[in-house]
Write a structure and sequence with these properties.
There is one protein chain. The protein is an alpha/beta fold. The protein has helices spanning 3-25, 43-51, 62-71, 90-94, 109-119, 147-155, 175-192, 207-212, 222-225, and strands at residues 33-37, 56-59, 78-81, 99-103, 123-128, 160-166, 198-200, 217-220. Strand 1, helix 2 and strand 2 (56-59) form a beta-alpha-beta unit.
């Protein structure tokens, strides 16, 4: 099977899952955006995915994302940065990312804003909220109680647009229970920021649970591209 055929098969299966999950939730599947996560996969795969109709691509690592976005600049894709943001890289990320999904602390806002200014156009921002239960090992994301301050910081930045929330279900917990907490956090957040209605949640193993609670974006890698390459 050619690489194009492999990607077409994986993409078709994932699109089918999204359609079925939306049908079960009484939602319009066209309102859910698939973000294809191409971490560790070559730019040639990005080109094949674009040819198969993918419009949004997600990357976790700055150096890889920057190079891949430059190599595929002619495709008109929307690039999502979904990895942990480092203070010294935030400005550089904003110079190629159309969406930064992983903002979790206020000190990064100024750096992102300056990077977006240098690029010459606004960057959409999602606030990453932690769903880790109390006492659990904290992976990433702002605590729900800290979202108000973080949101105000982004809303005040001239070159950033506050668009919504992003979250990852904690390891070892049933995704549906974690996403139920996310739905509550989001409801309160929307009371304060009604126009910031995007919600990025759900990956290869739990996209159905995320769609059930209103995810507008799902981030899928292995279910489309297969197992990550051994040589990175």
């Amino acid at each position: 099977m050619s690489r194009r055929a492999e990607l077409e098969s994986g993409l078709g299966e994932v699109r089918g899952r999204i359609e079925r999950a939306c049908a079960d939730a009484g939602r319009d599947a066209s309102r859910v955006t698939l973000v294809a996560v191409t971490k560790f996969f070559p730019a040639s795969d990005v080109r094949l995915l674009a040819d198969l109709g993918v419009t949004d691509v997600g990357e976790n690592r700055h150096q890889e994302a920057e190079a891949k976005a430059a190599e595929c600049a002619d495709l008109g894709l929307r690039w999502h940065y979904i990895g942990g943001l480092q203070s010294n890289k935030a400005g550089a990320v904003a110079r190629y990312a159309d969406v930064v999904e992983s903002l979790d602390r206020p000190k990064l806002v100024g750096r992102l804003d300056r990077g977006a200014q240098e690029r010459g156009r606004p960057v959409d921002v999602l606030l990453q909220v932690s769903l880790d239960p109390p006492g659990a090992e904290h992976r990433a994301g702002a605590e729900p109680d800290d979202l108000a301050v973080l949101a105000e910081s982004v809303a005040s930045a001239e070159h950033l647009r506050l668009r919504g929330l992003m979250a990852v279900a904690p390891l070892g917990e049933e995704p549906s229970s974690a996403f139920a907490r996310l739905a509550e956090v989001r409801a309160h957040f929307l009371d304060q920021h009604p126009s910031a209605d995007l919600l990025s949640a759900g990956m290869s193993g739990d996209l159905e649970a995320a769609i059930a609670i209103g995810a507008t974006h799902v981030r899928v890698g292995s279910a489309i591209l297969g197992s990550r390459p051994l040589h990175r």
